[in-house]
Design goal:
Alpha-Beta Plaits; 34% helix
Length: 116
Amino acid sequence: MNLYHCMVELKDPDRSLAFAAAAQAWLGFLEQEKLVSSWRIMRRKFGLASGAHTDFLIEIEVESMAQLEETFSSLSKMDDESTRLYERMHNMISSMHVGLYRNYPDPAQRERISLL
């Protein structure tokens, strides 16, 4: 299991409900197409956070790096409806920071090279 972790800051914090609905539509589409295993979206509670904690935290689970690669590959071939869903969500984002996490310790007991 790999966890794609996205910290999202909105352009307009007053649009948080619209963003949540757009993210749900987009991520639900990815899950329906079996491009991701599962996902969840969380919002900073009462605006309480320190440092780099953003408006939203999105976690997207993929079974393997192969599934993640397939997801990114499929996104380049999106139809009009999936493009609309993506753009509706993405246009509300001011900034986003991402990370890819895995279970630790790794059952195979090996480290991989950093991609960054």
